[in-house]
Design a protein that fits this description.
By secondary structure, the chain is α+β, with helices and mostly antiparallel strands. It contains six helices and five strands.
C-alpha cells in the first residue's frame, strides 16, 4: 500500500517572484525572460522551441482538466511536485546553477476542483505518450491528466517514482509526480495566515 505524500512542493529561485508561470506572459516578454535565464546559466536545459512546447502542453493540461468536469480558476497553472524532489538542486537539476528555494504546502489546502496531476512532469509525460522516440519508456500513465482521486489509484498501481530513474533506464523520465494548481487563492490565504 503506497500512501500519497500529504504535501506538495514548489521550487523557485530565491529572491525571484514565486508562484509564477512563464506562459502567463505574452510571447515577447516570455522569450526575454527565458533568454535571460539561459544567458545567466540558470536554466541550461532550456532548448529552442521550449516556450512553444510549454504552451502546447499547457493547452493539453487545461483541456484535459476541463474534460474531467473541472472549472479552472487560473488559465495557466502553478507547478508543484507531489511530496518533494530535491534532485532539482543537484548537478544538472532545474535549479543547480541558481539559488534554489522551495515552498511546501499541505495537499489538504486543495479540493479536487483545484488540482491535477501528471506522472511524471507534464512535458515528458505527453511526449513519451505521443512521440515515437518515447515508446521505449511508455507506461499506461503517460499522456494522461489525473484528478486527486485518480492519482491515488495510479500511485497504488505503480508506486511513487522514488529513485528508480537513477538505475533503471525504463524509468529514466519518471522522476516525480507533477502537480498543477488551478486556483491560487488557497495558497495566498495560507501564506497570509
Amino acid at each position: 500500500m503506497h500512501e500519497l505524500p500529504e504535501y506538495i512542493t514548489h521550487y523557485y529561485e530565491q529572491g525571484s517572484d514565486i508562484l509564477k508561470n512563464i506562459c502567463s506572459h505574452p510571447d515577447e516578454v516570455a522569450e526575454v525572460i527565458l533568454a535571460h535565464l539561459k544567458e545567466n546559466g540558470k536554466r541550461t536545459w532550456l532548448h529552442p522551441g521550449y516556450l512553444e512546447e510549454r504552451r502546447r502542453v499547457e493547452a493539453w493540461l487545461y483541456e484535459e482538466f476541463e474534460e474531467k468536469g473541472k472549472k479552472p480558476y487560473l488559465k495557466h497553472p502553478l507547478y508543484f511536485v507531489l511530496g518533494e524532489n530535491d534532485d532539482f538542486f543537484q548537478k544538472n537539476g532545474f535549479f543547480s546553477n541558481a539559488n534554489p528555494a522551495k515552498l511546501r504546502l499541505p495537499l489538504s489546502l486543495f479540493t479536487s476542483d483545484m488540482i491535477s496531476f501528471t506522472y511524471p512532469d507534464s512535458m515528458p509525460s505527453l511526449a513519451i505518450a505521443t512521440l515515437e522516440r518515447g515508446e521505449a519508456y511508455r507506461k499506461p500513465f503517460h499522456g494522461k491528466v489525473f484528478t486527486l482521486e485518480e492519482i491515488n489509484d495510479i500511485v497504488q498501481a505503480y508506486g511513487l517514482p522514488g529513485d528508480k530513474w537513477k538505475y533503471e533506464e525504463y524509468w529514466r523520465y519518471d522522476r516525480f509526480i507533477e502537480v498543477q494548481i488551478w486556483d491560487d487563492r488557497p495558497i495566498w490565504n495560507f501564506l497570509q495566515s
